Amino acid sequence: MAKESEKSRKRNKRKMHIRKRITGTETRPRVSVFRSNRHLYIQAIDDANGRTIVSASNLEKELSGLKNSVEAALKLGETFGKRLGEKNLKTVVFDRNGYKYHGIVKAVAEGTRKAGIDF
């Protein structure tokens, strides 16, 4: 079995440090961001019931033209914010999932804020 890389080990350590303090509820869900080299995934999670309320990714048919870039992350965040608004959710808790708050992760947060969602 291959060993976990040092980079992903450090990200998982940061992730666990953050997650022990952040939880999502039905009225204020946790917004989790995961980015791979090719794709970007965003979820609004209710940790109390253990279910995903809203999700968005650039794998969806209407968002498939978006690449994994800052501009695309901004558009994806706006789409995600609109979906949260349709579910009457105005406040969320942001979980950066161990990633540094810059670049793509920051663009997702800014796009969601543009749609009227409070962090």
How would the blueprint of this fold be written?
Blueprint lengths: L5 H14 L10 E6 L4 E7 L4 E7 L12 H17 L6 E3 L8 H11 L5
Parallel strand pairs: 1-4
Antiparallel strand pairs: 1-2, 2-3
Helix pairs in contact: 2-3
Describe the largest sheet: 4 strands, mixed
Unreliable parts: none
Give the H and E element order.
HEEEHEH
Q: What is the average of the pLDDT values?
A: 91
Strand content: 15-25%
Based on the coordinates given, report the CATH architecture: 2-Layer Sandwich
Quick one: overall form?
A: globular
User: Rg, please?
Assistant: 14 Å
- The tally of beta strands, per DSSP, is 4
Question: What is the CATH class name?
Answer: Alpha Beta
CATH fold-level topology = Nucleotidyltransferase, domain 5
Structural class by secondary-structure content? alpha+beta
Portion of residues in helices? 25-40%
Q: Span from first to last CA?
A: 40 Å
Tally of distinct domains? 1
- The quaternary structure here is single chain
Q: Strand sequence of the main sheet, in spatial order?
A: 3-2-1-4
Give me the number of helical elements.
3
Describe the 3D structure.
By secondary structure, the chain is of the alpha+beta class. The chain has a single domain, classed as Nucleotidyltransferase, domain 5. Helix content is 35%, strand content 19%. The chain has a four-stranded mixed sheet, covered by helices on one side. Helix 2 runs parallel beside helix 3. The model has no long low-confidence stretch (mean pLDDT 91).
